[in-house]
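Section handout 9: paired folding examples.
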Amino acid sequence: MAELNHRYDFVLLFDVRDGNPNGDPDAGNLPRVDAVSGHGIVTDVSLKRKVRNFVGLVKDCQPPFDIYVKEHALLTEVRTRAYVGVNEVAFVDKDAKSVPVAVRDKARNWMCSNFYDVRTFGAVMAMKANNCGQVRGPVQMTFGRSIEPITSLEYAITRMAVETPKEAEDQQGDNRTMGRKATVPYGLYRSHGFVSAFLAKQTGFSEEDLELFWQALTQMFDHDRSAARGEMSTRGLYVFDHQSELGNAQAYTLFDRLTVEPRHADGDPARAFGDYEVAFDGAPLAIGARVSAATNVELRRLA
């Protein structure tokens, strides 16, 4: 696998129509929202979950593209595989303090080599049992935040069935179950991301891993459909490719030059991606466009 030797920064645009992009369990699973500004929020954890699911789907969770944090996983048991893989089974289930540093480091490196999400996003694996240390991932993402404040709506829904005989008796055979469904009529969200070549060398994150990551960001919503999430789509992936490991410009100076502006009439709510214009230095960006963003920084639109 080719070693990563460039720094990358990127902007991800995605939208939702008549769905809940990221429910808040502390608020009755309503769409997450900034309580002060009213802008919608999608957590970085939610976005990383979709990347994990996409990679697991296309690579069938086979090493070196297995997924460490996946649904219903028992992480202690997963880390057991690392000790077996480096022939250190004598330390399986031992207290972390009794595991030599050299053994722990071998187990950590094994986890990086075999689990895509560990070498991409990092992981805290310094637990009491099967301690595999801690990995700081080269790829990090911010929360997604909507371009404009969102409207959160709730609808009553009806299921033409009940669960128990008592419910049927109470309803005298009507057999209906009432529920609620929360949606955002439309929201366009923006998230920023960062790829460190220095940290990539520490985890083994490669050019092949990076290409898979770009593919996941562009296609992950197409394989994550559900009635609750409505219609979600990646609308733009804009990658700033620096020509050095250290980077040739500060990330915020690049992000500030890529703008997303409403072009619908004041007072009219946005209801489609076409109600916005994406531009770099004031010029609209076509898919596949490449422009010189700064000294030795190239901007590529991948989606």
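Moving on to protein 2 of 2.
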Amino acid sequence: MSIFDPLKRVERLKKARPGREADAELENRIPPGQYETKKFPVLTYGDTQHIKPEEWKMHIFGLVENPLTLSWQELLALPAVSIRRDIHCVTRWSMLDSHWEGVLFSELVKKVRPAPEARFVMQHSYGGYTTNLPLEDLLTEDVIIAYQYEGKPLDPDHGGPVRMVAPQLYFWKSAKWLKGLEFMAEDRPGFWEQYGYHMHGDPWSEERFG
């Protein structure tokens, strides 16, 4: 069995170019260097995690007044929202009009009450994956903790039972199999950021690499 090498993957991606030309009619929706796909590719660091909803928990901790652990039933009891957004992967595909259902990140913020000095959030996943985001980016109406995709429960390949969806940034910033949100005063790199991915990840500015 071959050993996964993150550094080699990053180097290959730096040299890659879109596999097909972008549609000129979609130039206002597809960022530079991207192409549209109709299918939802499965890209994962490490093994796909299989967590039963009834066993899933998410811990919200760090610089918050009210640390919280949510169970599956407690998550479902929160106000649900539905969004339809375009998503963009750093590997250069974009998928338009993806439909998600879940809970607004800002709804969780109301419950935990971040400290004034909290400016960043580290996402922690089952399986050990991490990725960092500015708190400001997470507080938009687009960002949800998702448990449904296209009207069905989110399957494990795409991060089920629960994942982050932050569609304004490259999709590596939307952690699959989400199990923790850590509020921080200072930014620090997550998994891919340690290997050269950008600390922010805006697709319209092509913030692929640091």
